[in-house]
Amino acid sequence: MKKILILLALLFMLTGCELLDFLEDSEPAEGREFVTIERVVDGDTVIVHLEDGTRERVRLLLIDTPESVKPDTEVQPFGEEASDFAKELMPEGEIVEMERGNPDRDDYDRMLAYIWVDDENVNQILVKEGYARVAFIYEPNTKYLEELEEAQEKAKENEENIWSIPGYAESRFHEY
């Protein structure tokens, strides 16, 4: 009986320590907040739940991906792939960090933001992998523009995905 109590006490101490570590690490980075992914709509749009329970449609800042679900629009080349890749990066139910833009709304009342997973900028990952192009550059929402443009240059050089079709990304995905 004594051994069981000692084992339970040790288990409690270990669990308690891990819980304390989790609580210490559970603060978002400065300027960011935790959100829960409800679902990825397409490569550059997600629906999230804020910590207060509010549901928001979020448009990822400074990027554009080919259409995959836009009404009255054919699925564009790499549209489904961009959407699938975004779903891998941001699975349903995942808690991620979100950094709002300034202003934080577009003309369609969508929240404008950068999403961070494991301290990596999802917007930048989508560009780096050739699923998105840098677009919709409006001051003052240009905080990570330089990093995104560098990622885009590398994706172009490597002819990654959207950059594998000459002229496609530059056409805003409309001529193909």
Question: What is the secondary structure topology, with strand pairs?
Answer:
Elements (H helix, E strand, L loop, with lengths): L1 H23 L8 E10 L2 E6 L4 E6 L2 E2 L14 H11 L5 E11 L5 E7 L2 E2 H7 L4 E2 L10 H13 L19
Parallel strand pairs: 3-6
Antiparallel strand pairs: 1-2, 1-5, 2-3, 4-8, 5-6, 6-7
Describe, in short, the structure shown:
By secondary structure, this protein is α+β, with helices and mostly antiparallel strands. It has 4 helices and 8 strands.
Q: Work out the number of β strands.
A: 8
Mean pLDDT: 89
Contiguous helical run count: 4
- CATH architecture term: Beta Barrel
Separation of the first and last Cα atoms: 74 Å
Instruction: Give the number of domains.
Output: 1
Amount of helix: 25-40%
Order of helices and strands: HEEEEHEEEHEH
Low-confidence stretches: 17-24
Shape: globular
CA-atom Rg in angstroms: 20 Å
The largest sheet has its strands arranged as 1-2-3-6-5
Strand content: 25-35%
